[in-house]
Write a structure and sequence with these properties.
single chain; Aspartate Aminotransferase, domain 2; Aspartate Aminotransferase, domain 1; 7-stranded mixed sheet; 3-stranded antiparallel sheet; 13 helices; 39% helix; binds pyridoxal-5'-phosphate
């Protein structure tokens, strides 16, 4: 079976983690400090705080923007549940925004329509690796949390994603652009990052401001540093895989993702099909290829809401093909063949 996702790990990664273990200092320490400096440089921002997950980073991003009870937060409906949970964990109310059919992120026009008198922030994600323009979201008049979980390394108008909003987040889950197993980062101006650092650690504080243990370990950070050093090579291979799919799928009955140059890092290679997605997934599985819906289930469905036609359409038509650095050319060809057969009546 060709898996849908696979982390890219090597002997150097193992050695970096082993070194930390041999040092005896496994909790947050010097490796975390160094990883944070390297990430801030990569994002092109003043500072970064690493945490236990992308979800934790999202929650802390909203907290440092003073989002709390009584606030509304705009989030995409065509996205994973983490974007809903981060808002409710702050005691605020998620307001779902329909998808943009071109970027597959959220629609800036729909976001504008859904502003309320209580909107205090918007979470904008670069869906599946495609960096979006933030100008239209900045014009909403509320702070934007730039969710780079799937797009670390993408460049929009000459600047890395994560450098524009007041605050950005990333995820280092096993199958993300780079991994620490589980992990996340909040990046931005020094004052906001300092607040996030304060909130991620409850220990030995004079007061009882709500904090938690959202820290990353030095073992994870050591792995992250090795992965970050290879991020450009990972992205280059992802783009090569995408280019090969484009060649192999020319003329196939599907809509291919945009090429988008430096904007797209192809965390996912998402195609749109007319055939029923579940049936295509089943036929590909029978041929030894794991394809997936890129979003398990849109948020408006979980909440029983209507009024999200683009999200609904994308859920019905989008399919994610395996796309990761360790995928070999013969594997890409095998996926393309299985896909063509699965969508051809
Ligand atoms: C866009 C986006 N944001 C946030 C997250 C949450 O990250 P984590 O799984 O590290 O909590 C994910 C996870 O898949 C994601 O895709």
């Amino acid at each position: 079976m060709i898996p849908h996702s696979r982390p890219t790990l090597d002997a150097d990664d193992a050695e970096r983690v082993a070194r930390v273990i041999r040092s005896g200092h496994v909790a947050q320490g010097a490796e975390v400090d160094a990883f944070e400096r390297e990430l801030a440089a990569r994002f092109g921002v003043a500072a970064a705080a690493v945490v236990s997950s992308g979800s934790a980073a999202l929650e802390l991003a909203l907290r440092v923007l003073d989002v709390g009870p009584g606030a509304d937060v705009l989030v995409p409906s065509y996205a994973c549940d983490a974007l809903h949970h981060c808002v409710t964990r702050c005691g605020a109310a998620p307001v779902l925004v329909d998808a943009d059919p071109t970027t597959l992120s959220l629609s800036a026009d729909d976001a504008k329509r859904r502003l309320t008198g209580h909107t205090r922030a918007a979470v904008v994600h670069h869906a599946f690796g495609l960096g979006v323009d933030l100008d239209a979201f900045a014009a909403l008049g509320v702070p934007v949390v730039e969710d780079c979980a799937q797009a670390l390394g993408a460049i929009v108008d000459g600047r890395p994603v994560g450098a524009r909003g007041p605050v950005a987040v990333g995820s280092f889950y096993a199958t993300k652009m780079l991994t620490t197993g589980e992990g996340g980062v909040l990046a931005g101006p020094a004052d906001l990052v300092a607040r996030a650092r304060d909130l991620r650690d409850y220990d030995e504080r004079p007061d009882l401001v709500p904090r938690f243990n959202y820290k990353m370990t030095d073992m994870q950070a050591a792995l992250g540093r090795g992965q970050l050093a290879r991020l450009d090579a990972f992205i280059a291979r992802r783009r090569a895989v995408a280019a090969r799919y484009r060649e192999r799928l020319a003329g196939a009955p599907c809509r291919l993702p945009p090429e988008a140059g430096a904007r797209h890092v192809f965390h996912r290679f998402v195609v749109q099909v007319d055939a029923p997605v579940e049936a295509v997934i089943a036929r590909m599985a029978a041929a030894g290829v794991a394809a997936r819906r890129p979003v398990f289930r849109p948020l408006h469905r979980a909440l029983g809401l209507s009024g999200y036609p683009e999200s609904e359409r994308l859920w019905a038509t989008c399919l994610s093909l395996p796309c990761y650095p360790s995928l070999t050319d013969p594997e890409v060809d095998a996926v393309a063949t299985a896909f063509r057969r699965a969508v051809t009546p």
